[in-house]
């Protein structure tokens, strides 16, 4: 598995990469600007030599004469550490002095009387050696004649190329020094800026595992939202742990009480040769209550297990409701209750077990609290959201305890319930991103209680 970069490395990387790109572009720009300046300087020197030679031209006996002292050539070569080649052509293009086979100007400079001094520079090969050539038309006049002579001087490009390579190497070297300094400085700055985050990390690592107290406000303002979020998470975690501790305490009490009663009832039965039928019935009821509490606790635990699974599927809410009614039909018949199922047949994407547990707990709760011979039912409606209404006729509940009944082991009748059914319903509805509430209702048929569940039209939680 590829190791992830640290925050410091990523931050430094994205700060340094643009700097490297900009410095590379700057190096290229510096090199080309310096190269232009270098060539311009050498061209000016070459032009100066051409003009110096041109100033030495004269007309003798109607003939152009070039007197080029060796000192002129020696001065240039000593100053530029390079050979100087030249050629002079007369008014009519005839060879006057220098190298006769010297390369001609590819552009060609048309001599004009209005601008007698014209110059061009070009690169050419001479005897296999690359040259830089300066061509100058020099006006020459005497009392008898006048005209334009062509003076061409050249030097090998090897010196310029050597200078250019040296210039490039020096530019890159300095830029690398600047880059190294920039990288080091960037790393130090990033490390300094991330020091508060590192300190926060060490604070959390050295905390006691059970310490969920708030973290002190950090000096760095940028870390305040992070610390605030961590404190909120720890506060919620602390509340969850407190809730679990209370739940475990209450669960142990709820299981311990029926088990203690069962023990006493068994002891009484053992003392009698013929136990009374009432004692046997009470023992059966106590056993049933203990089994019910255990099953409800297991259901709560299974909710946490199902939450981590991805086996969601389309669920027909109306079909699940019919199955639940069939499962509770013996109890419904025993109490002579009238049950009805009305509404739509919506399909949601969810865990079928969760939907079944939700409807089973709501309906069994309604069955227990409906007077014998009374009526209850399930009404399902679909639209932007799915609304499930489980109702039963009866005396109703006090509005102030409606929300409290969703807490674990809260019940209006401890003899007929475990106090976990509505808790299971609330946890399932929360996971399904819905809401559930208990409320009284009045109708022409009478009063009663209804549990109203609202779920999103499409649910897919894994």
Description:
The chain is α+β, with helices and mostly antiparallel strands. The chain folds into 3 domains: 12-163, Beta-Lactamase (2-Layer Sandwich), CATH 3.30.450; 224-300; 309-456, Histidine kinase-like ATPase, C-terminal domain (Heat Shock Protein 90, 2-Layer Sandwich), CATH 3.30.565.10. 50% of the residues lie in helices and 21% in strands. It has 9 helices and 14 strands. The strands form 4 sheets. It has a 5-stranded antiparallel sheet. A 5-stranded mixed sheet has the order 9-11-12-14-13. A two-stranded antiparallel sheet has the order 1-2. Helix 1 (7-55) packs antiparallel against helix 2 (70-80), helix 4 (224-271) packs antiparallel against helix 5 (277-307) and helix 5 (277-307) packs parallel to helix 9. It is rod-shaped and about 160 Å long. The two termini are 26 Å apart. The model has no long low-confidence stretch (mean pLDDT 80).
Number of helices: 9
Please tell me what the overall shape is: rod-shaped
Class computed from helices, strands and strand pairing: alpha+beta
> For the largest beta sheet, what order do the strands appear in spatially?
4-3-7-6-5
Report the helical percentage: 40-55%
CATH architecture classification of the largest domain: 2-Layer Sandwich
Tell me the span between the first and last alpha carbons.
26 Å
Please describe the biggest sheet, giving its number of strands, its sense, and whether it closes into a barrel.
5 strands, antiparallel
């Amino acid at each position: 598995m590829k190791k992830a970069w640290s925050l410091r490395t990523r931050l430094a990387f994205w700060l340094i990469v643009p700097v490297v790109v900009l410095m590379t572009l700057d190096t290229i720009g510096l090199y080309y600007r310096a190269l232009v300046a270098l060539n311009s300087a050498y061209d000016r020197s070459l032009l100066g030599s051409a003009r110096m030679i041109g100033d030495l031209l004269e007309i003798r006996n109607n003939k152009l004469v070039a007197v080029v002292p060796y000192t002129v050539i020696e001065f240039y070569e000593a100053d530029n550490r390079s050979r100087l080649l030249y050629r002079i052509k007369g008014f009519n293009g005839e060879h006057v002095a220098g190298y006769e086979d010297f390369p001609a100007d590819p552009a060609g400079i048309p001599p004009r009387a209005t601008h007698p001094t014209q110059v061009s520079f070009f690169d050419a090969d001479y005897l296999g050696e690359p040259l830089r050539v300066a061509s100058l038309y020099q006006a020459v006049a005497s009392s008898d004649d006048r005209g334009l002579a062509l003076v061409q001087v050249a030097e090998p490009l090897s010196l310029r190329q050597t200078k250019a390579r040296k210039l490039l190497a020096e530019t890159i070297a300095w830029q690398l020094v600047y880059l190294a300094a920039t990288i080091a400085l960037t790393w130090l700055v990033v490390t300094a800026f991330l020091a508060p985050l590192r300190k926060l990390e060490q604070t959390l690592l050295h905390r006691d595992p059970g310490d969920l107290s708030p973290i002190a406000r950090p000096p760095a303002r940028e870390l305040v939202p992070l610390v605030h979020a961590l404190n909120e998470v720890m506060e919620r975690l602390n509340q969850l742990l407190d809730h679990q501790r209370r739940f475990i305490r209450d669960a142990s009490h709820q299981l311990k009480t029926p088990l203690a009663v069962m023990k006493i009832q068994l002891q009484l039965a053992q003392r009698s040769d013929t136990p009374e039928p009432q004692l046997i019935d009470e023992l059966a009821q106590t056993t049933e209550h203990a089994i019910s509490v255990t099953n409800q606790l297991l259901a709560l635990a299974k909710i946490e297990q199902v939450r981590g699974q991805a086996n969601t599927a389309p669920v027909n809410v109306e079909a699940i409701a019919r199955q639940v009614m069939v499962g509770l039909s013996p109890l419904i018949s025993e109490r002579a209750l009238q049950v009805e199922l009305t509404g739509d047949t919506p399909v949601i994407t969810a865990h079928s077990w969760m939907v079944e547990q939700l409807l089973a707990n709501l309906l069994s709760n309604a069955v227990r609290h409906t007077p014998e011979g009374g009526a209850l039912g399930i009404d399902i409606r679909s639209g932007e959201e799915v609304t499930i209404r489980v109702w039963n006729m009866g005396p109703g509940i006090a509005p102030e305890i409606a929300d409290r009944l969703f807490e674990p082991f809260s019940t209006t009748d401890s003899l007929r319930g475990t106090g976990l059914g509505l808790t299971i319903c609330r946890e399932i509805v929360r996971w399904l991103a819905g809401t559930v509430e208990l409320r009284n209702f009045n109708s022409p048929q009478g009063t009663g209680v209804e549990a109203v569940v609202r779920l999103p039209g499409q649910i897919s939680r894994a």
